[in-house]
Amino acid sequence: MAKLSAGRRAGSKWSAALRGTGVFGALLLAMGWVVACGAEGGGPNGVAPSFGGSGGTDNDASVLPCSGDASRTCAITVGQQGSVLTCYEGTQHCQNGAWGPCTDGTTVTRSLPGGGMHWMSLSDAGACQANPCDPSCQVFNETPDGGLSLDASQSGPVWQVGNNGDLENTNWPGGQYAKGNKEPCYSGQDCQFDQYCKYPLTQASCAHSKCTTGAALSSTCEECVTKVCADTPSCCTTAWTAACIDKVGKICNSFCEKTGTCEHTKCQAGNKLANGCDPCVSSICALRPSCCTGTWDNYCLSMVGSVCNVNCGASDGDCVQYNPGEKNPNCTTLPDLTAGVPCGQTIPICNRGSVAVAANTAAFWVYPASSSHWQECSPDLTASGGWPKKCPIPNQIDPGQCVSVYCAELDQLKTVVVNPWSDPARIAECSCQNNWSLFKKETGNNPMTCAAPSCAASTVKASVATVNMFIAFDKSGSMCEPQESYGCSNPGATTRWGLTTGALKSFIRDAKSAGIRVALRFFPGNDAGTVCGGYCLGWGTSCYTATCGSNGCATPQVDLGPLLAPQLADPPPTNCASSGDPQECSLVKVINANYPNGGTPISEALNGAVSRMSTYVNTNPLERAVVVLVTDGEPTWCETNQTTLANIAGNAYKNYGIITYTVGLASANQTLLTAIATQGHGQAFFLSSNNTSADLVTALNTIRNNSVSCDLTLDTTNGINVNDVTLNYTSSGTTYALGRVLASGNCGTQNDKWYFDNNSTPTKITLCPDTCARVRGDLGAQLSVKIGCPMVFQPQTFTQVYQGSCGPSQAVQWGFLTWSSAEPTNSYITFEGRTAADPAAFNTAPLPGELKQLGVAHGNVAPYTTDTQVCPLTGGPAGCPVDLYGKLGIPAANLSNLEVRATLYPSTTGSSQAPLLSSWNVTYSCIQAL
Questions:
Q1: How many CB atoms within 10 Å of residue 751?
Q2: pLDDT per position as a tens digit, 411-468
Q3: Are strands 346-351 and 363-368 parallel, antiparallel or unpaired?
Q4: What whole-number distance in Å separates Cα of residue 438 and Cα of residue 380?
Q5: How many other C-beta atoms lie within 10 A of the C-beta of residue 267?
Q6: What does pTM read for this prediction?
Q7: Among 247, 302, 295, 254, which residue's Cα sits nearest to residue 273?
Q8: How far is it, in rounded angstroms, from Cα 687 to Cα 712?
Q9: Which H or E run contains 613?
């Protein structure tokens, strides 16, 4: 029951059902509301409005002519209820020769001849202000904090779970926790604690991944394959078919996770995929048809990142927690029991199958912590020293749900297995791979913490794919300008060469570049033992162009290697291997050793870069490949046709998923470079001659950041609570919480922030650029996302009882109901009322028909065609204000006690949007007793 303020009259009370304070408004007179009643509308009983000036009343005065800026008093009848008139008295001004509307006035009430009146709205007792009708008027003024809304509750899970981290930080005998949470995982047996193995890895001794179709596998190449072939021998004698992959899920509790109707996941090489089985697959096959007609090879796999912006390596071989309501998709005809992380002296026992487990039909067994049976499907149940001990499961467990089971045997450190297959009384289930858990009592050091399970949770390793950047850098003679017209052995700092190579060094040495892999090839030249598109014997000597088509540019002067964080001195140390950053050291050395001379063989530079990167992605398909072409001029050697040059970049994207960027200096051919970047699905940058160095750094930084996917896809299967999302970043064993900002524009230079793609219905999390750079530079980075369950609402009724108080020989007459509210989507609020001579009558449930329907607050959504979210005294939609006198009828409208019920209904689409009742007003008058 809400706390009543000290000034509240005994005549107004909240019922126990009302959890909050309501506003029944300030007195309407004090608000000075303007009434906009038309002459044809009249009052509730058809009383026509009248307009009166000092000289009398005219029935149709508004059409009379006027002149100048004349004004006069006016009055409009708002309504008549029994013997009470509600009037608006204001002023009319002359407008264009005619009297304008009645405005700038006050709402008053009067009695018809023979009656007295007292009109007041309820709130804390106080004198009404400026009431010309009744100086003794009192008003109750109630102001709730934020209005009335629904109490939100977390949906779904009613069980409690412990924290995996608490188990991990315990010294378990034989390293049991590490064995039961082993990553990368090869089967579900590596993932206990109500987890499954997502995108399981396959031992190298197997001919191909067990998650892709292909040739028959050797029955001895790994344990999961052995189990599958024991069940279906043809998988190891004839062919590894889709049915064998399904067995991997059912027998090994490993989710190969098909996407759509695809035969296997797009994130693993294997047989061709059907065009249309997945939107990403369709996009790739449109570019490289062989992915859907030949085989889904490593080139197809590498295009998943560049074409679909998906990091395939993000979750390979991860132990993933089941979410509330989630079921094993490979278990469609049986239950599938698992044991979660315990909490207190209870343990969550879950059913990940599709068939309910009846009460008292299943059980779990408790072993000492040192049990040697850990992770076995059929442990020995023969008692030794009193162990193991059996604990029944007394509750029904519905599919996708868990129950918290108390067992007196759970004490200190214990090992727990649910439904062991060696138990003659066990129930049939799909898999025994993840039936184990560890129990730790909530006492002593490192106690277990309890919480509701997350609605979605994932741990994403190396979530930011490694970027491999091949920089093809023009060293033609024109790079000496403006110092020299062509070729220079000692270019100055203000030449194109000096400005751009200085910027290149800045990019390489930037801490934000840590983690990316960079290769460098200057063209033309004969460095690294190969001729790249032609060469010159030395500065000022003859140049040779007879190497077109030799693919010498495919050998970089510094091959791909990761940049680290240190910034070395320039010139760098002689021994790069012992420096803090060997790749930075090697790159800067090569930059310092080169100088401009020769022509511009763009075709050779592009072909060489694409050749090197295509070879790399074939063996590293889960990484990103980028080519950056930097040049200041036209192609002068070898191929010069624009279409042919652009097609080199286009084919690199279509065939290998390689993205090409171009950077143009000074006199570069912008049309050509734009065509190359467009075909390569990259971007063309053109540097200002006045700010060349800074512009190049900006361009390279943009290319670096655009090449990385810093997105984490959200699992919204069970819905999410956008206000309960935790994103943690773990580096070198230390975990940091990353905070949320509302949009990318709020990121600034913060390196610990992220944002949603949509703040209402998000589908992914994106790291802010500086945060992305921080994580990308940490080769051992781990990101974990935990998502709270969506807040849901149930309909709720708020009730308030009002008691009208009038003088001798007077009777209460209920007047109007108004409100102000907000109803998102199709939520709504209904108002009902009843009256009684004795308020005690409200202690019993209403009789059929006793509650009168007063009104509904809603938006303009089906089935409603009007918007009644705000229902004022005047100027509102039809039916506003609500005429209590007419709705209640006689004699009910004259009984002194009124019960008003407001029922708030959440949105029926998801039940995650709740209405808000900001304020409402109830009026009554005192009339002559009948």
A1: 18
A2: 889 999 999 999 999 999 988 889 999 998 865 556 677 877 877 765 554 456 778 9
A3: unpaired
A4: 17
A5: 23
A6: 0.60
A7: 295
A8: 33
A9: helix 602-619
